[in-house]
Amino acid sequence: MILDWLLAGALIGTAAGVLLTRDLYRSVVLFIIFGLLMALVWVRVEAPDLALAEAAIGAGLTGVLFLDALGHLNPDKAAAVRQKYRQPLLSGLAFLLALGVTGLLWMALVDSPQPGVHLPEIVDQQLLASGVEHPITAVLLSFRAYDTLLEVAVILVAVVVGLALRFSQEDQPAETQVLSPLLQKMLVWLLPLMLMVAIYLLWIGSYRSGGAFQAAAVLAAMAVLMRMSGTPIPGHSNLYLLRIGLVVGLGLFLLLGSVDLVSGGNFLAWPEGWEKASILVVEGALTFSLGMLLFSLFEASPAPKQASMTRGGGA
Amino acid sequence: MLIDLLRSLLILVGAAFFLVGTLGLLRFPDAPTRIHALTKVDNLGLGLIVLGLLPGVASWPVVFKMILIWLLAIAAASLAGHLVVQAWAGSQNKETSSRDS
């Protein structure tokens, strides 16, 4: 109980810190801490799946992207932008807006309509029909597969735009390499272990916490480590392989999701009797593609304006 | 009974090490000394906590996983510490050379 209050207090404190601090670097570090605290909160409310995703993507990968973006920002320009938001009119308006949203959220919380159906119960009843034993995987890839499909599509579009901007730029990709013999030696041990963890996370997704997104985050972290340490990534410079890899997850998702549709059934209803196999294949392909997508976001960042060594160890 | 006492003692001492490590992180003056506090003290604390938790674990795979977590944390901490100090030394060199010129 005390722990919960401490967590809630720390969460609000770090959130306020992220927004109020004048130093952008401090703000990003606080954001990462906020993500880790959020992961702890998810653990406390018994949602380990969300905790894993939050820690890996919310705090880890987003943190790396923010730190990376920070290295490209012109300090003067950033200060000017912040100066702009210090204008009383703008900040007053923002305050009123925030107050309004808070009020609406509060009303929604106090006046929440009684749910006519008890969703967890329905999920439990239908779990057998989905082909997997873990309720969250069942919801993500069977009952609400449409949402997951669109999520993946949104990430794919974002990465395609990012890569298109990347290729249209003249400067070479960022060479943010960390030269350290210790790192190279350690990676020989760490990379196979990480690959194993990724496959493990994917595999246990069918009956426990884990799944494609979590496994993909580990894969992406592997690729980032390899990239930064100068370890060659197989097929890294092959653009055709890149394109195939990026879309294979969504493609297989659509393809297998259409099988039932073609034979007169519903879109995204997995083939009768092959539910578990379909979900595993789609999850496997999604893991690979999402890993590449997340890594591509990192890879698409432009070369830093001034080479700052301090960013090296962050990833 | 005695084993429970021993376990509680191990976990409490482990937690105390974490506290001291965090204190070091906050109080020490520069990056190398802070890393020293974080990587050495915290990993010893983690080891003690793992040691304290082990007797209560029923299955061997979990025992193996917990020891593996400790070993990985040690490896990751030493590697991260090494990289941060390397980056710190690089920026330090740059500063002195720019001050000289």
Would you write up a description of this structure?
The complex is a heterodimer of chains A (315) and B (101). Chain A is built from 12 helices and no strands. With 315 residues, chain A is mainly α. Chain A has a domain at 119-315. The radius of gyration of chain A is 22 Å and the shape is globular. Residues 305-315 of chain A have low confidence and may be disordered. Chain B has helices at residues 2-27, 31-53, 60-100. Chain B is elongated. The model of chain B has no long low-confidence stretch (mean pLDDT 86). Chains A and B meet through helix 9 of A and helix 3 of B. Chain A: InterPro entries: CPA3_antiporter_subunitB, MnhB, MrpA_C/MbhD, Nuo/plastoQ_OxRdtase_6_NuoJ. Chain A: Keywords: Cell membrane, Membrane, Transmembrane, Transmembrane helix. Chain A: Belongs to the CPA3 antiporters (TC 2.A.63) subunit B family. Chain A: It is a multi-pass membrane protein.
In short:
Chain A is built from 12 helices and no strands. Chain A has helices at 2-20, 24-44, 48-72, 75-85, 88-110, 119-130, 135-143, 145-168, 181-204, 212-229, 239-262, 275-299.
Q: What characteristic shape of chain B results from the CA principal axes? A: elongated
The helix-and-strand class of chain A reads mainly alpha
Q: How many extended strands of chain A? A: 0
> What is the count of DSSP helices of chain A, taking H or I runs of 4+ residues?
12
| Main sheet specs of chain A | none
Largest sheet of chain B: none
* N-end to C-end Cα span of chain B: 68 Å
Helix content of chain B: over 70%
User: What's the gyration radius of chain A in Å?
Assistant: 22 Å
Strand content of chain B is: under 5%
Percent range for helical residues of chain A?
over 70%
> What structural class results from the helix and strand content of chain B?
mainly alpha
Low-confidence stretches of chain A: 305-315
Helix tally of chain B equals 3
Regarding quaternary structure, what we see is heterodimer
Distance between the termini of chain A: 34 Å
Describe the global form of chain A.
globular
